[in-house]
Structure formats: C-alpha cells, structure tokens
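Predicting structure from sequence has reshaped protein science. With that in mind, we have picked out one protein's residues alongside their backbone shape tokens:
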Amino acid sequence: MRAPDGPSTLRDLVEGLARHGERPALVHVRDGTGEALSYAEIGARALALAGALAARGVTPGDTVLLFGPNGHDWVVVRLALGALGAIAAALDDLTTDEELKVLVPDSGARLAFCAAAHAPRLAAVDAGLTLVTLDPAEGLPRWTDWEAGAKAELPPIRPEDAMMLVTTSGTTGRPKSFLLTHANVLHNVRALASQGIVTREDRALLPLPLHHVYPLTVGILAPFTLGTPVVLPESVTGPHLVAALKEARCTVMIAVPRLYAALLNGLMGRVAQQPWLKRRIFRALFGLSLVLRRRFGVRVGRRLFGSIHRSLAPDLWLMASGGAAFEAELIWPLEALGWQVLSGWGLAETASILTNNHKDKARIGTEGWPLPGVELRVAEPDERGAGELQCRGPSVFVGYRNNPEANEIAFTPDGWFRTGDLGFIDADRYVHIVGRVKEMIVLGGGKNVFPEELEKHYGADPAIKEIAVLDRQGALVALVVPDEPAIAASGSPRIDDAVRVALGTAAQRVPSHQRLAGYAITREPLPRTRLGKIQRFRLSALYDAAKAGRTASAATMTDEERALLAEPTARAMWELLTARFPGKLVAPSQSPQLDLGVDSLGWVEITLEAESRLGLGFSEDDWGEIGTVRDILDLAVKRAAEGAPARPPEPPDLSWLEPPSGAHAVAAWVLAAANRLLCAALFRLRVTGREHLPDGAVIVAVNHLSDIDPAIMAAALPKPALARIRWSGERSRLFVSRIGRFLARAARIFPVDERQPATTLAYAREALGRGDCLVWFPESWRSPDGAIQRFLPGVGELVRATGAPVVPARIVGTFEAMPRTARVPKPHPVRVTFGPPIPAATLTDGAANAQEIAGRIREAVAALPD
C-alpha cells in the first residue's frame, strides 16, 4: 500500500504554500502577542532566498549549516534550503563549543545561517565558513540581505536526493550521522496529512526544537501541507505555553511525553492546593471520568473540567506525542481530564514516524498501526511474541555516513533496518514497545532487565522526582533525584530516609533479580536529550560522582558565592561547617541533607556550636527554610545583622505526661484489655524476656516494621511496665483531631515533631526523669522490606543526656501481618523478644557521638532472635 498523493520534494511543498493564500502559516508568540507570517508570504520568501542562493553558487547537494533558535527566520531559511535542493545540517541551538568542533567539520559545510550570537563560535571552529545571520548583526549579512539579491533559476531536484544531514548520539553517546532524502521525509508527511487527524481549521502549538526530525516532519511540514497554522511559543516554560495556547487559540499540541507529564503534574499540584471540599469533589469527578473513558469509551472530561480547560487552553482537544515512549499511566489521566492523546513511534533514521494511533481507532498503551508502505517484523520473538522490531519502507534511510561497522550492525543481511526497539505486533496490527535492545541490562545470572520498566515502577512514589536504573558490576543500582517539596509536604525532615523507604517499599513488589543493590541521590536533573530520553552513557560517571559527593554544582563556585564568603560572618560560619565535615567536599550549592547528611538533630548541634563560638542565634524552625549550604551562610549574616539572641526550642507541654484520669483512665483500661485479646487472637502473640524489664526509668528500643507495632508492644509489656509506659506520637498524624488527642492521653502518648528534635528530647528526658518506661522506635520510619534500618541519633542523644539503661527489643512478624503498603492487618504469628538491659555507661563508653551510640543499640536489637 503506497502513501497518498502529495508533494514529492520539499520544493513541491514550498511551491504549494501559495494556494493557502493569506492564511496564517507560522505564528510566533512573544510577550503574549502573536506575530504571524502568511502562507503566501512564507512560500514567496523561501523561494526568493532559494533563488538568491542559487545565484550565489549554492547547488543541490551542497551542505549548509543552520544554527539558531526556533522562529520565523529559521523556518523560512530551512524551507529555502529544501526548495533549492541543498542539504540542511540543522544544529541544536544549545550545541556546546566542544560539540561544534566535531559537528562542523563532519558536515563539510562552507556556508552557515546562524543566530548572531553563534557567529563568533562558528568562526572560531572554522574561519573559512561564510556566515549569514538569522537576526541583525553588525559586520555580517542577514539572510534578508541575501533574499533581496539577484536570483537564478532553481535547478531540478529528485525525490531520492538528500534533503537533510542528521547527527544523533541519542542515549548511547556514540555520534553517528546520516542523510534523509526528500522521499524519506515527504513519504511520512503525505501519510500523516492524509489521515484527517488534523485539518486546516486546527491551530497547532509546537514547543519543540525544530532541528530534530520529529518536530520538523510532524510539526512543520505535515501542517504546512494541509494549510494548518503552526504556533511557536516564546519558550517551553509553563507561563509561555499557556500564553501561546490562549493567544493563538491552539486546538492541537505536538510535544513529547515529558512535557505532557510536566503539564499534568502542574495541574494536579494546583488541585492539591485547593480547599479540602474542592479536592474531594475533583477526585470524585476525576474517578468517574476515568472509569467512563477506560471502560465504556465515553468522554466527559471536557464537560466536567471546563474550568481547567478555560484557564489553560480553551480550544485544545488533541495532544499528539512522539520522540519517546508515552506510558499509558500518563495518557489515561489526560484523557480523563478531557483531551484526546495520540502517540506514535519511529526513529530519526525513519524520518521520525513508523506507526501512529489514528483519531477514531486509538488504542492506549500501543503505538498504533504502521504507516502505508511501512513493513514491520519481529525478530526472534520470545514466548510472549516480543523481539526486536525491524522495518523497511520508503521512509527508512540508506545507512550511516562513512561508518560501515555501524551499518553492518544496523541492517540485516536481507536489508531490514534493526530499530533497536523491542516489541510485538498484536492480532489487530497494533504495535507495542516493551524496551530497547541497547538499554537492556543482562545481569550476572542471565536475567534480562529493561531499565525503563523498573524506572516507572520505582519512580511512582511521590518522594522520587526522577530515577535512572543502571548496571554496576552485575547488580542493579539507581541514580535518584528526590522530589524535595513533596518530601517536605509529607512531614519528613529526612530526604535520604524518604528515598530509601520509597525504593525499599517498591522493591517488595518486583522479583528479587529486579531489586536494587544500591542507590545514589543527586539534586541535579538526569541528563536527557532535547526530546526527553535519558542519556544512559553518562549515568555511570554521574552515579560515581553522586556516591562520592562530587556533583557538578559543587565542583565550581560562582563569583557571587566567593563574594559572600568574603563577608566575615559568612566566612566564620563556613569555617565552622567545613571543620564539622572533614574529608568532605563542602560547597555553597550543596544540600546539607543530601550532600552532607545533616538531619534535624544535626541542625540542633550546628546551632548550639554557632551560638557558643560565633554568638549567632538560630532556632529549630529555621531548619525548614534551609535548602543549601548557602542558605545557612545567608542566615548567619542576617542573624549577625539582627544581633538577636538564640531562640530557645518550644517548651514541652508537660500535661501530656500526667497519668490518665477519669474518662481517660477508663479508656486506657478498656483499650489495654481489648488490645491484649486482639493481639492474642489475631497474631498469636508470643513474648520472651519480659523479666529483663527493670523497675524505674528505662528506654525500650525496638525495631519498627508496621503501624501495628505500638499495639503489639503494648500487649507484650508486663502490666507493671504498661502502667508507667510513655510513647511518642507524630503530631501531624495523631493530634489533629479531638478523638485522636483523647486516645493519645488515654494511651500515654506525647506529641512530637521530627523537625523539632530538641523539644522531642525534652519530653523524653522529663518522662525518664519521672521514672517512666519509654518505648522508642529509633528507626522512626517503618521498614520498607522487613530489615532493621539505621537507628537515628536521637536515641543516642537521649541515652547520653539521661543515663537511662536501654532494653533492646525485637518484633518479628508484623511486617508480614501489615507492611507499610497495606491498609488493614491480616492474621500472622508475631513474636516479641526483650533482651537484657544495657547500662548507659556501656553504650556511651568511647562513643564519639550520638550516632555511634545509636549504632550500638541497633546492633543489640539485631542480635536478638529473628
């Protein structure tokens, strides 16, 4: 089946633009206002420049560089080069000087159209290049100057002639260049234009860099064939996208999955900020719309969420996507909100499109059908029918330039192109992509792992903003970018623990060979191509750097940061911090939490040291405002200017430590009796070592597996100890309601906030001073995998401050009864073991700090029977 009729060369397409007359062809929205070029004008100017180039001796087959940002000028010059028959070598506007040193000589170009800012950079690489600018520049001709010059007749060109030079390193880091012909590109343009998805009455927003094959083919040439206006935003930031969508009344958006993900996250973030009632109503309507769309194919999202559409894009109905895999889990919410989402699949080597979903026959989770004339086959399919997808057809390139080794790998002996994508074709001809051959990780035991699948699984937790999975010596590890605002909103002051628990929880739902053996945290975004794919060849070095604390941002210091360190107070604070972390790289741009391991208790220690040595007053509350080391320096300068004394921590409300009386006492007795019966019946609780609990003040340090651990411990303690028990409870979870506070008093629970460790320790010291039995979960977090986690230094500080003995205790079985992902417990045997008490002197002897004491307590708990 051949593609529909239409232009056979780019010259045919450009000459045909005149038939659309004064209709807007290209609208560039800047400062909220759209500047339009008509089809007649853009076609005439492109042909005029082509004729002028011909008069200057540029011939079909000559390579010409095009290096600049999206805009009217870029598009006119690009169309002119195609109309002449020259080979356009378009460079990314963000190309670095090092990359130019490779790309410019490789192109063989002697002429370059470039942004004025790029001209000196090109001249530094090749002084012999003739430079013509896209925007005004002193001392250099602009393309409009050449357009106005003498013209020559355009020589003939053929569909099989080369139209563009493409250089791609993709995600592997090994650059290869190849040519696409007019026939390659125009085959896809004609096929897309004939499908009727977009019409000349639509208006298409194109927020992608035009040097890529995908936005050029799908976003410029296909709409221009139809007479559809194309809208270029000022940038891809949220405000500029919304401004372009509204100003140009765009009905279609042509983008990549990461852009749609950012759009969806922004919308959901706005919803999360609404009052409680509005959030509940939205969730109910969203759930209804999703069910109707998924199960019955009914679209009601535009009606239900009209206010969202009016505020974002009143006329937008279609979100078209390519360039990277578009996961169904992202498409369905967009569909539920009222947009239609159509995705496709292809590679730059196939002029960007091999398959796509059609308007009325889209199947979410697939990449649609092959274009007319495209043949696909699955090589060496596995038991589910998946194997490498291979193709041939009019849009497939002929091979890489000057690279016979790459061509031998890229093509089969019978001439099929190996796409490198793994997938299968179902009975209805829909194509499913499951991974990349080159990105597949083969583990030591021979197991195959696709990193993208695991990244989707591990990255689903709100604590994780980005994640990349890679192979390190036969084991899986991950480079993680945490979502710091989401973690802070959850009430956690410890980013590392939030990430560790998120990964550990996710690991319980995958086979053992897909579990991570390690991870490194970085604050820097993962390296990606301009279309959003992870550049995996860079991950190994970034992982090592993150593990060692050597981030790119920490490696250099800005002039502004150096000036700050010249201020005496900032310098003194800087010296205090660098002395506190000997052997570690300390930089103003670093995160105290992620890069230096400072938690809220560590912040208390820093503030005490700053007060005693520098006379500066900080508070626990300041910790919530600290994001970088520079923030600490700025705060030090501010406090010194204020001359304010240290603000003491909030004094504890000691009424929470009074024994329950009246209704609270009755409730305490009822709760204790009911809890013992329930634990015996549901969990067949067995307890050993009760005799180890001494009279008087004692800290019971116990591992934390589940939300039911406090109930288990209450049932496990002997009655005399239960009568003087004290617990700590997170203020944000238990103390927000009247019934919660009532139960807390009955159960002898005092409120704590992990962001105020000094206040928490003050409560605990007072309770021990009264001779109480304090049950303490030093991990704070429930274990994500059943293993004992790191004990936080708070328990060590408590032992050091009070001299109370510690009874180690270990719970076994509650993780299986109710892991952190479960909402209700299930019957399962549970055992609690109490160890002999450990004197405080034994724990503190020779210990350098509170963390070392906490580590000794953890060892004692881990030594108990499991």
Q: What stands out?
A: Residues 654-862 form a domain with the Glycerol-3-phosphate (1)-acyltransferase fold (CATH 3.40.1130.10). The longest helix spans residues 276-296. The two ends are 67 Å apart (CA to CA).
